[in-house]
Amino acid sequence: MTALGALAIVALLILPLGFGASFALYPPPELTLPARLALGFAGGYAITALLSYALILAGVFYAPAAYGLMAAGAVACWLLAARRAPLLAHFRALRPGRLTKDPSTIVGLAVIVTIAALAVPVISAFHARIPFRYWVDGMQIARLHEIPAASIQYGELYPTVSSKVLLDAFTAVVSSAVPQAQLAVGPLLWVATVGTALALWAVAREAGLVLTAPLLPVLVVANPIFLGDELTIDLFEYRAEAFGRLVAFAALAFGVRAVRTRMLKNALVAGILLAAAAGTHLVPALFVCLLLAGFALATLIAERSRIVLTGLLRTAAVVFGGAAAGYGLVLAAPDATGLGGPSASNDYGGYPHGLDPTAYLANVSAHPASDAWYRPPWQVVSAYFTQSLDTGAFRDAGALTFILIGIAALAIAVYVLLRSKAAPRFAPLACLTAAAASILMALFFARRYEVYTLATFGMRRLFDYGTFLFVLAGAALFEIGLALLRRFRAWLPLAAGLAVTLVVAAAALAGFAREPRPEDSRAVPLLSWVRTNTPCDARLLMNARTVGVFQATTGRTSVTEGMGPFLRPVMLRRVVRLLMETKRFYADPAAQHGFLSERDVDYVIVLRGEGLGLGGLVGPGNVEAFRDSPAFQSVYETPDFAVFKPLEEPSPPRQLPRRFPCRTTPLR
């Protein structure tokens, strides 16, 4: 099978269901083209994941049953769509129209096609330094037909964590059809990239933008040049949040539509998508809830009537009820959610020299600024502007500066909302509300917690969405301002809007194409050697922490491979101790030789650089220390890594269940 074949399979799992549901729910011409395309991708993922999760909870997840259920769902959707309107009429709804009639849609479609084309290299590229953990979770479910009570982490069995249950369920379906992780990850990343771009385009159109609507997907997820680029980078890393954003942004588009129309159908679609987003990753679902609350507030202020308030309350109950249902899906899993950290923060203490275990695991140097605040308030607010705009101009700004900025932003947002009649007038105040809520939540975590991961949660996770808010609010204000040009020439707003959109999009997309990273290709010889030269029950030790790459691509166990247990204090304590012992071993292997027998290590891998793993090396890549020691035999070596076999017979191997297929052919 090739990567393009894998892409075709992923598309078949998603698009028939997604577009079938789109046409069944919204016969033409009820939806704009961006909203219909976004629902095709996001709805397909959501339905596939929900159907698979239902089988998993019942303990009867088998690939034929899952595929049969999805095929039946797709057929039912298309039959319903055919009853509502002729199929030919549905497909005509996908036509963007003639250029002279709808130039903004043509430009938006061209932007999406460009993003899709520039992301093509990601399909066939091998990705070594990404968290394969979610793929591994899906593989386990596919083999065991249910969520296992324990999973293999760091060479041992730990209770399974399932806070990303819908992504795990979706991955179980994909891994059953495409068993080779190295072939499936690229197509999944491409689908996430294109689907997220479509969802953002739909958000912009539903928020009232027309001429500048294509700028939202470009500047948020295809922009390594201007503003913050965190959302762009994440789409190349196979993170759960990438798929969470795909569904959450689609939920946002239909949520904004529901706030505007107060139609129950729109609210239900938004609620279902938001449930799928929360079951995939809670952070994007939380952000979308904040922004939808901002749109509801702006609508209430602008229209100020009891009927509007009643409609908004009904819409909010359905949409936010969907988010709550998504969290209920997480709780329905028969194991821990992995979210116990915030309620057990005292368990992070007791380390030597005041060590912060979460900072140690993340390989960052971080310490509280004071006893009262992990980061002082002005620094938190400064970080919001710095990360969102990718500028250091606000790094040393004082409290007065931020107060004045807030007052000015509020005055502009309220003035535009009350004085303008343009469709995008709700967006500035909605974005300002979401930004303020994000900053307040970040301040709460910085004040409440004393360890890095918890104290900086808002700054590290919610502030990633600051660029989105700046772009949406800025584009809305710009488009409202374009209307003033009608005083001079009727065609000026259209010409100026399209010209600015094309220039900015071209500048941003010029740097978007992502070529394969050299370190990824350098990892292939190591993984191929492990597949072809080690027994299936081999236990490896490497001077870097990996997140599933050995399990996913070779079927072997690495003692330094596992999830990041930042929110599991008990497991974190054991993992930090393991990594410290590993670091001491690599610094002086002769003096720490007993460590290998304690961990039942069969092969020691020494990386000279960062070709594998996350967060840097655990120990030094001192190949000479192993080569000069009589306790080790060199069995394989390249300029990037070396493999040694301890000459002392290891202890009887730990009996771990066979969860992953043992690969014995070279990695291709």
Overview in brief:
The protein is mainly alpha-helical.
Provide structural commentary.
The termini are close together. It is built from 28 helices and seven strands. Helix 8 (165-177) crosses helix 13. Strand 1 and strand 2 (156-159) form a beta hairpin. By secondary structure, the protein is mainly α. The chain has three domains: 3-331, no CATH class; 352-504, no CATH class; 518-646, 3-Layer(aba) Sandwich (Rossmann fold). The strands form two sheets. It has a five-stranded mixed β-sheet with strand order 4-3-5-7-6. The chain is globular and about 85 Å long. The mean pLDDT is 87.
Mean pLDDT: 87
Spatial order of the strands forming the largest sheet:
4-3-5-7-6
User: How many β strands by DSSP?
Assistant: 7
Distance between the termini: 10 Å
- Could you name the ranges where pLDDT drops below 50 across 5 or more consecutive residues? none
